[in-house]
Amino acid sequence: MSFTFLTSTLDERRQNNQFRRRHCIETIDQQLISVNNKQYVNFSSNDYLGLNNHQSINQALCDGAKQFGTSSCSSSLVTGYSYAHQALENEICQWQNKERCLLFSSGFAANLGTLQALKHAGTKLYLDKLSHASLIDGARLASVGNQNPVKRFKHNDPSHLNKLLQAERDNQLVVTESVFSMDGDCAPLTEIKQLSAKYNAMLYVDDAHGLGVLGQQGEGGASLCQSDITMGTFGKAIATQGAFIGCDKNLFDYLINFSREYIYSTAISPAVAWSTLTSIKLIQKEHWRREKVQELSQLFKSKLDSSITLLPNDSSIHAIVIGDEDKALSVSEKLKKEGFWVSAIRPPTVPKGTSRLRVTICQNHNARDIIRLAENINKAMV
Ligand SMILES: Cc1ncc(COP(=O)(O)O)c(C=O)c1O
């Protein structure tokens, strides 16, 4: 019988407490969700600025659908590129201080489509050890048949990167994230940018978790360090869907001609592009949302027992490393019983022995729930 590996590998996952399954969210009201008829405060969402279901963004989605339709009905290079996409790209270029911008259907597709397009016999890629799966896959695709294997530098370690980069070499690309998705810590982007410039390398920053949250106008970590290439997702703080690559004109033209994910995929919905434009305008104006995230994050940290190890962070993401899968699952289950949804993140998403709770603090959480969550984590961890 063929495909017996399906059952055997799933069994192995179950035995290791690494089996994944989905939960259907029946209703959602701000950060309150209901699953199987029970209500929870959601501390696992990436809606950092509390913009999901915002009235103006919803209205823009409806207006966009009326003006341009719900679907772009073809790839951007055929007839899928509309005024809605163009207006969004122009806004992002100004916000990010980039010459050009192009839209992808997801952050995963943007990372894959950009890195893969940079595949060239001489290209050398340097990735942070904790890079997101989409960056790793993109880099792997970029290095197929390439004599230069992808190099990984120690997490957030510019001195290790310095040892790996080579002087007088062309086509070197350093890839990192502004805020790491499972740890919540920020990359030392200014140092990494300086190093990249010293070795004539380009810097690619995945700003999935920094965009909207970092900077006076939510411009993110990549913009603050003036990365050469920025990837930003719309599905997190921006609260819509899709992604962009911000870059110079030359790379833009190259991607439009060689990025397979861009060329051979339906352009994002014009209605979504229109609502994303509204969201980005709001994000730039409403700095109070970022201040609130900082304030609530400080409150959460201050209420945790000193015995609890929280990874150092400067974002909405708070990672409490527990260790084995079993314990992480059991703490997450205890929190569910008390009405808090906090997912246990386990290998292979994070390295073995570092299973954790990933708590995300969003602008529309309330102080009372945050204090109760911290108290319950303190109790559940003993
Ligand atoms: C760092 C990072 N990059 C890229 C992505 C992919 O973005 P998207 O969800 O838009 O595909 C994610 C999403 O989980 C992420 O955390």
Automatic annotation (TrEMBL):
SUPFAM superfamilies: PLP-dependent transferases. It comes from the Bacteria. Keywords: Biotin biosynthesis, Pyridoxal phosphate, Transferase. Its cofactor is pyridoxal 5'-phosphate. The keyword Transmembrane helix does not apply. It catalyses: 6-carboxyhexanoyl-[ACP] + L-alanine + H(+) = (8S)-8-amino-7-oxononanoate + holo-[ACP] + CO2. Signal peptide: none annotated. Pathway: Cofactor biosynthesis; biotin biosynthesis. It is an enzyme of class 2 (transferase). The keyword Acetylation does not apply. Its EC number is 2.3.1.47. InterPro entries: Aminotrans_II_pyridoxalP_BS (IPR001917), Aminotransferase_I/II_large (IPR004839), AON_synthase_class-II (IPR050087), AONS_Archaea/Proteobacteria (IPR004723), PyrdxlP-dep_Trfase (IPR015424), PyrdxlP-dep_Trfase_major (IPR015421), PyrdxlP-dep_Trfase_small (IPR015422). Residues 39-377 form the Aminotransferase class I/classII large domain. PANTHER family: 8-AMINO-7-OXONONANOATE SYNTHASE, CLASS II AMINOTRANSFERASE/8-AMINO-7-OXONONANOATE SYNTHASE. Homodimer. Belongs to the class-II pyridoxal-phosphate-dependent aminotransferase family. BioF subfamily. NCBIfam families: bioF (TIGR00858). Catalyzes the decarboxylative condensation of pimeloyl-[acyl-carrier protein] and L-alanine to produce 8-amino-7-oxononanoate (AON), [acyl-carrier protein], and carbon dioxide. This is 8-amino-7-ketopelargonate synthase.
